[in-house]
Design a protein that fits this description.
The chain has about 425 residues and is α/β, with parallel strands linked by helices. The chain has eleven helices and 17 strands.
């Protein structure tokens, strides 16, 4: 995996960038519409997407996802996360090692376009799925990436917003879902702020889906600016710095520097670094990023990928060429995620009684119920437990998570 990581990051530019005053984007205040209206061409069939110079209609999008699942049945699986208010499908493609179904790999998650008019990421995710599937077995680096990481890609999480003008065009796309709710202000806030609206079914379905997985690293794709927005969104750095802020800055810099090797002007509209802590840009509550980080222990970043929310069709291929290496390299960051930031509550400590902790070898669990007990390492690989005595003798020294039901306890092997 280390060789893969080095190979995928070989084109990163290492030059430092000077700081500039940050700038707010148009949708910092949601009542301000995107004034840049793109000229879009639509693909009414899968065949019309062959040159990747247009957006798919809704029916073409569904046909593309179903077609890949049929063409590569051993390499990918098509999941339905749920449905939108108007009944459109919220789909996710799992791409994983086809030769070893029993492999326990860390899980990675890309999700795009919860703001329906921010469709750059929607297009990117479709091309990424196609690239990973069609390159498997021919590209050494991408084959190893798929073999070592289970990759989940949700191209479109707000289909009603994207196809507000009808299934045949994205030209009428809007930010909100069909109930006129901003889905990125509608997640349970881990810091206590109640959402303005009742939880929307798109978010309920997404929460249920991520709860079924152990995503280690993820990204939520947006548009309207070009910046890597890392947690927290609910607080400024001066109020509550994220414990892994330095890691996030380094990840963001690698992403931006790689993109700038193809277009040196990218990611400069918010600040010169192209990386910012979310609350230092502007504070929001009930966003998905903070929910994923705090509640699920998943390192999620918000990627703002284009200053124009809906790119003209004529720009799509250029933007992909500038961004594809960065998007792939971000997946390769998965094995390097720092210790999962899960809070261990008094309830967890009372429910999970383990000793000695730290331990050199044996760990004893004082519990009569091991029906849902797992030992998880820091890249998300898990092992089901069937005994009250765990022999960690062959495990590397470090931090592990003992999960029993909804309770989590940190365990240290030294």
């Amino acid at each position: 995996m280390k060789k893969l990581y080095i190979a995928l990051l070989c084109l990163i530019a290492l030059s430092a960038t000077a700081q500039e005053p940050l700038k707010l984007r148009a949708d910092a205040f949601p009542w301000q519409p995107d004034m840049q209206k793109a000229t879009v061409n639509m693909a009414a069939t899968v065949e019309e997407m062959a040159d990747w110079d247009r957006y798919p209609t809704y029916e073409t999008y569904v046909a593309m996802m179903q077609g890949w699942a049929q063409q590569y049945p051993s390499l990918c699986r098509l999941d339905t996360i749920g449905t939108s208010v108007q009944g459109r499908l919220i789909l996710c493609m799992k791409i994983a090692n086809p030769t070893n179904a029993n492999a326990v790999n860390p899980e990675f998650f890309y999700s795009s376009t919860m703001h329906g008019d921010e469709v750059t990421g929607y297009y990117f995710m479709l091309r990424l799925i196609d690239t990973l599937l069609s390159s498997y077995g021919t590209s050494t680096e991408l084959t190893e990436l798929v073999n070592s990481i289970d990759i989940y890609i949700n191209p479109l999480s707000n289909p009603d917003g994207t196809y507000r003008g009808g299934n045949n065009t994205v030209a009428g796309a809007v930010r909100y879902n069909a109930n006129n709710v901003d889905l990125n202000r509608n997640y349970p806030d881990p810091f206590g702020t109640a959402p303005l609206n009742s939880q929307q079914i798109e978010n309920t379905a997404m929460i249920a889906y991520v709860s079924q997985h152990r995503f280690v690293l993820s990204a939520n794709l947006h548009g309207g600016a070009e910046v890597m927005n890392y947690p927290w969104d609910s607080y400024r750095t001066s109020q509550r710095p994220h414990p892994d802020a330095d890691w996030w800055k380094a990840v963001g810099k690698r992403f931006v520097d790689t993109t700038r090797t193809y277009n040196s002007q990218r990611f400069r509209d918010v600040n010169s670094a192209g990386v910012i802590e979310g609350g230092d840009w502007y504070v929001i509550s009930n966003g998905r990023q903070d929910y994923m980080n705090e509640v699920h222990g998943c390192h999620e970043i918000t990627m703002e990928l284009s200053t124009q929310k809906t790119l003209p069709s004529s720009s799509l291929c250029n933007y992909w060429n500038w961004m594809c290496h960065s998007l792939i390299n971000y997946i390769a960051e998965t094995p390097n995620v720092p210790n999962v930031n899960l809070s261990v509550t008094e309830a967890d400590q009372a429910y999970i009684n383990v000793f000695p902790n730290p331990t050199r070898r044996y760990l004893y669990i004082k519990s009569d119920n091991l029906s849902d007990a797992y030992l998880i390492d820091m890249v998300g690989r898990s092992q089901r437990l069937h005994s009250n005595i765990i022999d960690l003798g062959d495990y590397p020294n470090g931090i592990y998570l003992l999960k029993m039901g909804s309770h989590v306890q940190k365990v240290v092997k030294y």
